[in-house]
Specification:
Elements lengths: L1 E4 L5 H4 L6 E12 L6 E15 L5 H11 L6 E7 L2 E11 L4 E9 L8 H15 L4 E7 L3 H9 L3 E6 L14 E7 L2
Parallel strand pairs: 6-7
Antiparallel strand pairs: 1-4, 2-3, 4-5, 5-6, 7-9, 8-9
Amino acid sequence: MEIRPARPQDLDFLLEIDATIESSEYLHLDQTGEGMTVAWRIERRPMREKLIEQNPLGEDRAFAVKQIATGIDEGLLLVADHEQMPVALLAAQPDYTNSALHILDLRVDCEHRRQGLATALLYQTINHAREADLRAVRANVAANNLPGNQLLLKCGFDLSGVDTRRHSNHDVVKESATLIWYASLD
């Protein structure tokens, strides 16, 4: 395996990485209070049925990946190769307003998971942010993506917030609210 910066010729292969999310558990969010006294309790719970969700790159993220790969936009685009084929991708862009590197996407092909690729990509991203004198690395992960949330926790990220309305007003009920993670570099 080799981790390297992505090249424009990698773009077609990056779209083919099978990043299906599989999980039998999720992080349940329980809100108490209202207004300025709101509090969240988060606990690991079994899902009603096992989640097997296609996770395509999506138009917005695919566009951002293309812009970074071709040098039009600033950012970090790392690829892990296996036998000269991309099997993992990490895309991130600097957010200078908040002095953070925002992870747009992290995906590892199903056949190459549990080999440390995502961890290695995250550590290289954290190192890149340090070299750029940024104060943090930020990532957003759905509460129903337990493997993604566990990975960030393992790599030193702290849970910093909850967004229950990113996709709809009913995300908490659908077990898919967005959790906001930060790895502080200060």
